């Protein structure tokens, strides 16, 4: 090898030594860093209770790390460990990062001892006391108990008390059959007469007087002697009462009586004593007995008889119905007669009925059903009459004069039997061409709301509408108003007047008893005629001067805000007022003469009526886009708009229009 090649080789070896030295330095530095990290991340596991601190084993079950003594080392993760010790439940834990470098205490729960104690008694009368405390009542004691010393008491009413002392260790399995000592007792029996056979559990044990030792327990005792009724009893001898003593008086043997009674459910007397109805009876022999069987509506029977010991006596009794003649009449005639859900004809009718109290029902379409009681008798003919009241008359008699509906508004009952003129003549000041004169007769009683529907009432139906609670609701259309009526009808279980299909009005049920809007005729009759000697132009009368505190209309305070106002009148409100703020009107209602105008039931029409035509209880059945509004409002300030005959046709909501509800009585 040349000198040049030797120099190159020496340089290479020197460079390799430098590389190895650098690598060793890096590895040593990394080792130092790992040792420092591990040292600072060591977690000491302290196992409790103290008695197992040095005996417990700690094993890593998940993650990377190692355990030295009771210290866990882990660099990169949160390991899972399990801690175990003999006589204790094992416990698995996850060691979280926050515990690195700290002491973690893990307490193991000791295993209980499992005990099974049994006795030869198969019933559930054994009582087990543990440390003088009632533990269970059963034929066996199966339980888990903590390690320690226990006093066990075994008590059974038929055996002597057994006491045990047990010392139990953790996790011990203990099982034992406990022998109980039977309690000795005795049976003492005397009878009158004597020399009676005694059977215990159907085994003959002697004759009376009897004194017999016996173990405690439950026995079937039977006492028998020829010519006397046997006696059977269940007797019990216990540790608390080991001696059983009985004195029996035997009764002469009885004969057997079987009865077949028709109809069922009657009253039975045997020897003048009311007796429960059974198929068979036992009675004394060689003497007379009397039987009486009766039932309302039937002729009673009496029998005298004797029974014997060698043969069962059977008696059959079938009572004959006791019938009475009844004449049934009604006013008006033709009422259907119903008895026990069975139709018996129409009045007048004569029936033959059982002589028991009868409930007779008289029913006739359009009249209130009547039920009456009568007791027929076979000795004479009885007459029963019923006065049927028309359903409408009865409903009217029973109807309250006022009531509150479910949403809180009050309604008054009106009983019209009146003829009046709607509209206004051409010469009446303020008259409009759409106020046709019509002769109207109202005969159907109806309810009308004392007040216009308020915001608080309407919002129970539609919460989206806002407004002061006590003010009348406004800004609602005619369809909104009738849908509120239907909602209120549904709330009270009444039949709806307005029939809808997919939010479209498809029909009107005039005979429905649900809520509706007042008809135009009803509204105008209330505003102009009720409680008056004659019709008036205004709600308050005929005087053009409005009395103080009468209505809320366009007054002095509205000057400049409305086209017309009533000079010299001040109602204290520039706009809508709270419902019922002004004097009650002659009808008993509030605010028909002002505050807000009101939707009524009728479609708006400009067709004049026929001359001399009489409208009897008019009820519009048409469906139009435009409907009538009635009554003045807080913007009204002219003779025309203040009159009760004033009417408008409207097809949409307005901020000065509300409504009040009504409904048919029937």
How would you describe the overall organization of this protein?
Strands 38-39-42-51-45 form a 5-stranded antiparallel β-sheet. It has a 4-stranded mixed β-sheet with strand order 3-4-1-7, with no helix packed on it. Strands 10-9-12-13 form a 4-stranded antiparallel β-sheet, with no helix packed on it. With 666 residues, it is mainly beta. It folds into 6 domains: 69 residues, Carboxypeptidase-like, regulatory domain (Immunoglobulin-like), CATH 2.60.40; 66 residues, Sandwich (Immunoglobulin-like); 66 residues, Carboxypeptidase-like, regulatory domain (Immunoglobulin-like); 67 residues, Sandwich (Immunoglobulin-like); 67 residues, Carboxypeptidase-like, regulatory domain (Immunoglobulin-like, Sandwich), CATH 2.60.40.1120; 252 residues, paralog of FGE (formylglycine-generating enzyme). The model has no long low-confidence stretch (mean pLDDT 91). It is flat and about 125 Å long. It contains 6 helices and 51 strands.
List the helices and strands and how they pair.
Layout: H1 3-40, E1 43-48, E2 57-62, E3 66-68, E4 71-73, E5 80-84, E6 91-94, E7 103-107, E8 113-119, E9 127-130, E10 133-137, E11 140-145, E12 148-156, E13 159-168, E14 173-178, E15 184-192, E16 197-200, E17 203-207, E18 210-215, E19 217-224, E20 231-237, E21 243-249, E22 254-262, E23 267-270, E24 273-275, E25 280-284, E26 289-294, E27 298-299, E28 301-305, E29 313-318, E30 320-321, E31 323-331, E32 336-339, E33 342-346, E34 349-354, E35 358-363, E36 370-374, E37 382-387, H2 391-398, E38 402-404, E39 410-414, E40 418-422, E41 438-442, E42 446-449, H3 455-458, H4 478-491, E43 498-501, E44 504-508, E45 515-517, H5 520-528, E46 597-603, E47 614-616, E48 627-630, H6 639-642, E49 647-650, E50 657-659, E51 661-664
Parallel strand pairs: 1-7, 8-14, 15-21, 22-29, 31-37, 41-47, 46-50
Antiparallel strand pairs: 1-4, 2-5, 3-4, 5-6, 8-11, 9-10, 9-12, 12-13, 15-18, 16-17, 16-19, 19-20, 22-25, 23-24, 23-26, 26-28, 27-30, 31-34, 32-33, 32-35, 35-36, 38-39, 39-42, 40-41, 42-51, 43-44, 45-51, 46-48, 48-49
């Amino acid at each position: 090898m040349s000198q040049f090649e030797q120099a190159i080789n020496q340089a290479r070896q020197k460079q390799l030594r430098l590389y190895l030295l650098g690598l060793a330095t890096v590895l040593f530095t990394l080792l130092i860093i790992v040792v420092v990290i591990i040292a600072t991340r060591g977690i000491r596991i302290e196992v409790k209770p103290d008695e197992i601190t040095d005996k417990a084993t700690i094993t890593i079950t998940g993650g990377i790390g190692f355990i030295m003594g009771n210290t866990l080392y882990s660099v990169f993760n949160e390991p899972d460990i399990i801690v175990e010790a003999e006589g204790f439940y094992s416990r698995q834990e996850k060691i979280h990062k926050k515990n690195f470098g700290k002491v973690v205490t893990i307490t193991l729960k000791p295993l209980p001892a499992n005990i099974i104690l049994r006795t030869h008694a198969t019933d559930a009368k054994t009582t087990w006391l543990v440390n003088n405390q009632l533990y269970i009542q059963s034929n066996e004691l199966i339980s888990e108990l903590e390690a320690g010393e226990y006093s066990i008491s075994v008590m059974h009413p038929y055996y002597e008390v057994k006491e045990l002392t047990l010392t139990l260790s953790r996790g011990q399995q203990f099982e034992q059959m406990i022998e109980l000592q039977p309690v000795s007792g005795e049976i003492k029996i005397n009878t009158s007469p004597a020399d009676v056979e005694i059977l215990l559990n159907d085994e003959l044990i002697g004759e009376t007087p009897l004194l017999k030792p016996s173990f405690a327990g439950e026995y079937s005792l039977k006492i028998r002697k020829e010519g006397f009724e046997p006696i059977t009893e269940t007797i019990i001898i216990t540790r608390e009462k080991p001696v059983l003593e009985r004195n029996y008086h035997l009764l002469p043997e009885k004969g057997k009586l079987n009865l077949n009674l028709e109809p069922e459910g009657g009253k039975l007397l045997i020897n003048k004593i009311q007796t429960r109805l059974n198929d068979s009876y036992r009675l004394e022999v060689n003497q007379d007995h009397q039987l009486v069987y009766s039932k309302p509506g039937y002729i009673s029977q009496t029998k005298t008889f004797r029974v014997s010991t060698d043969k069962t006596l059977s008696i059959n009794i079938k009572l004959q119905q006791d019938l009475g003649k009844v004449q049934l009449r009604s006013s008006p005639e033709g009422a259907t007669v119903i008895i026990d859900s069975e139709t018996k004809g129409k009045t007048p009718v004569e029936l033959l009925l059982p002589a028991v109290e009868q409930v007779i029902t008289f029913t006739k379409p359009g009249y209130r059903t009547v039920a009456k009681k009568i007791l027929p008798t076979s000795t004479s003919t009885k007459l029963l009459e019923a006065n049927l009241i028309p359903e409408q008359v009865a409903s009217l008699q029973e109807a309250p004069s006022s009531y509150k509906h479910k949403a809180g508004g009050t309604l008054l009952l009106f009983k019209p039997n009146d003829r009046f003129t709607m509209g206004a003549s051409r010469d009446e000041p303020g008259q409009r061409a759409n106020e046709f004169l019509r002769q109207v007769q109202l005969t159907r009683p109806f309810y009308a709301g004392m007040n216009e529907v308020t915001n608080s009432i309407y919002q129970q139906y539609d919460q989206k509408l806002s407004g002061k609670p006590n003010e009348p609701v406004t800004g609602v259309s005619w369809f909104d108003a009738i849908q509120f009526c239907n909602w209120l009808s549904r709330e009270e279980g009444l039949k709806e007047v307005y029939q809808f299909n997919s939010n479209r009005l498809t029909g009107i049920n005039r005979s429905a008893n649900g809520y509706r809007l007042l008809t135009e005729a009803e509204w105008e009759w209330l505003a102009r005629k009720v409680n008056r000697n004659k019709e008036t132009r205004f709600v308050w009368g005929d005087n053009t001067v409005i009395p103080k505190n009468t209505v809320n209309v366009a007054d002095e305070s509205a000057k400049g805000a409305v086209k017309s106002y009533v000079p010299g009148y001040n109602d204290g409100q520039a706009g809508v007022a709270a419902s019922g703020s002004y004097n009650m009107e002659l009808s008993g209602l509030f605010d028909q003469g002002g505050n807000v105008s009101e939707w009524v039931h009728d479609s708006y029409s400009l067709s004049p009526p026929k001359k001399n035509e009489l409208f009897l209880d008019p009820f519009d059945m048409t469906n139009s886009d435009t409907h009538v509004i009635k009554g003045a409002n807080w913007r009204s300030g002219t003779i025309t708009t203040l009159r009760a005959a004033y009417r408008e046709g409207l097809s949409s909501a307005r901020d000065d229009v509300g409504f009040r509800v009504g409904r048919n009585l029937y």
